[in-house]
Specification:
single chain, about 250 residues, alpha+beta, Phosphatase 2c, domain 1, 7-stranded antiparallel beta sheet, 5-stranded antiparallel beta sheet, 12 strands, about 30% helix
Length: about 250
């Protein structure tokens, strides 16, 4: 299966850019990873870049699209961040979210996993058919019935996470159990909260319908980020992946 991939990452109104991303492909699989770091004095930038580097290196050594491979890559990134925390006092509290997409390009299937609140969306025939569920306090409030799902984007507690890479007590990535068999035209969006927090689901779908390329899809969605003040707020990043021609 042929893939089209584009990336977008901007500092917004906050320097440095603590988001990081990377992709790597073998003859039989493609791996995409997006991370959003947190931690004072540049620690978030260190954590996210370290997570991407270590996780992709793990995929290069085990180029398999499977839940075990995703867990192993995230575990390696988590452990690398924990080790780095011990070496430098100013990054002792650094953390990072992570969202991973692994596509078996030989057999046309996809697996994914995440930790934190960076999201993966899967689109098919003009609808969102799957989305990761944030490891956040506000998501727990939604699950408990105290908050409506549509209120997550505007909640002041949105950035409070209960799981992240580098948080030793709560390394519990969520990984799907069964691979998704892909169809021509399927599309994926991996994005940090600085992006999805300003782009509604309906806007993502409309932009996908109107975009001729992955790059154009990201550009259309970025217009919404900018229109809602994203250039003056958080870092925002996204990866767009099309399986054949998205529709």
């Amino acid at each position: 299966m042929r893939l089209a991939i584009s990336a977008l990452s901007k500092p917004g109104g906050r320097e440095p850019n603590e988001d990081a991303f990377g992709c790597w492909s073998s003859d039989s699989a493609t791996f995409c990873l997006l991370c959003d770091g947190a931690g004072g004095h540049g620690g978030g930038e260190v954590a996210s870049k370290l997570a991407v580097r270590v996780a992709l290196a793990r995929f290069q050594s085990v180029p398999v699209s499977s839940g075990a491979a995703i867990h192993g890559a995230l575990r390696a990134a988590h452990e690398a961040i924990c080790v780095a925390q011990d070496g430098e006092g100013h990054i002792a509290q650094m953390r990072s979210t992570a969202v991973v997409l692994a596509i078996d390009t030989l057999h046309g299937s996809a697996m994914w996993g995440h930790i934190g609140d960076s999201r993966l969306y899967c689109f098919r025939r003009g609808a969102i058919i799957a989305r990761t569920i944030d490891h956040s306090v506000v998501q727990r409030m939604v699950d408990a019935g105290y908050l409506a799902p549509g209120d997550i984007r505007d909640s002041p507690e949105r950035n409070q996470l209960f799981a992240a890479l580098g948080q030793e007590q709560n390394f519990a990535p969520a990984i799907i159990d069964v691979p998704l068999q892909l169809e021509n035209g399927d599309a994926f969006l991996l994005c940090t909260d600085g992006f999805w927090g300003l782009v509604a689901d309906a806007t993502m779908i409309d932009a996908l319908r109107d975009a001729p390329t992955t790059e154009a899809w990201l550009a259309l969605m970025e217009r919404e980020v900018v229109a809602r003040g994203g250039r003056d707020q958080d870092n925002y990043s996204a990866l767009a992946i099309w399986c054949g021609q998205a529709s």
